[in-house]
Amino acid sequence: MKRQLKAINDWVDHRTGLPTAIQTFLYEDIPASAGWHQVFGSVAMFLFLIQAFTGALLAFNYAPTPGDAYNSLRYILTEVTAGRLMRGLHHWGASMMIVVVVLHMVQVFLYGAYKKPRETTWMVGVLLLLLTLAYGLTGYLLPWDNRAYWGTVVTTRIAAQAPLLGSYLTRLLGGEDSIGVVTFARFFGMHVLLLPPATALLIGIHVYLVRKHGVAPAPGDEVLPTRKFYPQQVLKDTVAIFIAFAILFLMAVAVRVPLEQLADPTDTSYIPRPEWYFLFLFQTLKLFSGPLEVVGSTVLPGLAVLLLILVPFIDRSAMIKVTRRTFAAAVVLLAAIGWGGLTAAAVLTTPPEARQAAIDYSEPTEWMQLSPEEMAGVGYFRAENCASCHSLTEGTTGIGPDLTRTASHRTAAWMIQHFKSPAGVRPGSSMPPIQLSDSQLNTLAAFLLKLNPDNATTLSNTPDFAIQGALVYQARGCSDCHVVNGAGTEVGPSLNGLAKRRTRSWVEEHFDDPPKLSPGSVMPAYKFPQKDLDSLVTYLFSLPE
Amino acid sequence: MDQTPRASSPQQGLPPTRRNFSAIAIHGIWAVIVAALGLPAAGYLLIPAKFRRKNDFVEAGDISQLSPQAPLELAFRRNRVDGWRVVSEKSTAWVVKFPDNSVVAYAPQCTHLGCAYHWDQRRTHFVCPCHNSVFSLDGKVQEGPAPRPLDRYQTKIEGNKLLLGPVQQTPSQTV
């Protein structure tokens, strides 16, 4: 067996030279000082592979046009097995890649590893950093939700401000008149067709240069014997990669990546914010106004990139110990403080409503089609802890029967009787009577009649704000005069799509004195406790069109 | 990476047990990473998506116009779940009324490779033009490479209206 394997290996080696090449690669000499601080490059390359892999998988179920992008992503998130995991890995992988690439750069900078003869390695590295940011910029548009749309509006406007090149850049990005199909095609094309091969090529050159010049030695390494890349440094790299992967995987599973509502160019209330790693640029822009704005948007960032590329030519002194490179450490510290300060300022000045979207469209949203009465029923179902005995998820059984299969065979009247006196209607039942008023029991029955195995989980993920709002709506009898999702009496206007027609403050003021804002209105004034008002308005604003 | 260290690299200066430990750890960690990515990826690509939207029954036409033993091709519009979309598209069905008044609706594709077959009035059987599969009036394969009888729509009859549901495969014929 062993001899056959060796024969195969020899054959492959003779015909391709691959085994020898791998040997040469693994048994590369590295300086004695090499260690944990040099793992970041390998981790960055690993994360690039993760992005390529998850990106290709996402593309298998994704349609890159404004008409379909959003729905196909929702399909990935809500219907495709492990779709949420793949998107989570891709989303958080992007953030993590920025972090690791910057850490890699900081390490090289602190150690002065960019010095002669490694200047080109550094410069190619800076280009790779720019490519990484370009992925973030172009990928941001692809979900085609409100966040993506408005973020890209701002990006293309900034590109338009670039001195001399502005109008050409805008044309190149396809954002001349507005963000549309052309912009989308350009961003997608860049993200998946142009950037990946460019990155692969530059990584190839980068690694070739690292190998050509060898891993940068520290002062004192010349007198120590060199070591081999394999196995010790490979193990360190592998452990670092594993830590990065474990963190990424946990984030992809545990931290939900939201999907906002479909991109809406007419939404005037939307407050766009860039991805976290661009917040410092966003904040820099605010420091400049009027004709100086271009300084913050393009001149300063441009100069910063130029400075970064020229680092090896600015600092040409001889290699010294990392502990004595106090100036470099001061530069890194200053940059970190500047970046951190700007980012913190941007976060602090972000209005709370821009930070948290009310509705997560990455979950099924069947609950949005419920009438207020049915939705309030979900509220009572939760408040009465019905789920502790009646399971709503398929395949699990509780003490009581599976309501998704049995409830629809009953009538509302039977159910209400049963709620009041379970054992009276079904002798032997151990269910306690439900202490709710008749109208509340009616509401609960309305929800249960709507229940089936297909919608049970989607109905049980109705967000709390909607339930609280629907409870207020029911309690105040709003449906006596308004229609929501087809239920109610149409004396006043239908409330579906209210968010499109009115602002929050208009609606809140309208409750105080309806005829003042809509002359001729017969609606009485309503005074709500603040909490109820918030719930009700948030609920009304979430209603579909 | 699968190379066993060569005898020609003794300058490693590491005791063999430590070298072995490193090699096992490296391979082990990569195996975990590949599995953690590969298994979900396989599920992502191979497990069918959950169809939360079902194909409903649609009205295909009037069966009072059918005469027994004479198949009729009915065209109708139906909504089909296509990935993230529901598309409204034209579909057809070959509908046969039998002497006992039962009605069967065949899906319009040959069970061999999916070509559209037609009814040969003179010889009273269905013929597929691609590879000459021949099906009898009751859908059974009579000649040719077709592996199983014609697939049937689930049917419901309300008055004179024929309602068609999802297509069901007829299990392969045992002759």
Task: Explain the overall architecture.
The complex is a heterodimer of chains A (545) and B (175). Chain A is 61% helix and 1% strand. Chain A is an all-alpha fold. Chain A is globular and about 90 Å long. Chain B is α+β, with helices and mostly antiparallel strands and 175 residues long. Helices cover 18% and strands 34% of the residues of chain B. In chain B, a hairpin with a 5-residue loop joins strand 3 (85-97) and strand 4. The A-B interface holds A 19, 22-23, 26-27, 50, 53, 57, 60-61, 63, 68, 71-72, 74-75, 78-83, 85-86, 225, 227-228, 230-232, 234-235, 238-239, 241-242, 245, 249, 364, 454, 458 and B 1, 3, 5-6, 9, 11-14, 19, 22-23, 25-26, 29-30, 32-33, 36-37, 40-41, 43-45, 47, 49-52, 54, 83-85.
Order of helices and strands of chain A: HHEHHHHHHHEHHHHHHHHHHHHEEHHHH
The total beta strand count of chain B reads 10
Sheet bearing the most strands of chain A, described?
2 strands, antiparallel
Oligomer: heterodimer
Largest interface, chains and sizes? A-B, 41 and 34 residues
Classify the beta-strand content of chain A into a percent band.
under 5%
Mean pLDDT of chain B: 84
Give the strand order, joined by hyphens, for the main sheet of chain B. Answer: 5-6-7-8
Radius of gyration of chain A: 30 Å
Secondary-structure element string of chain B: HEEEEEEEEEE
Cα(first) to Cα(last) distance of chain B is: 55 Å
Principal-axis shape of chain B equals elongated
Low-confidence stretches of chain B: 1-11
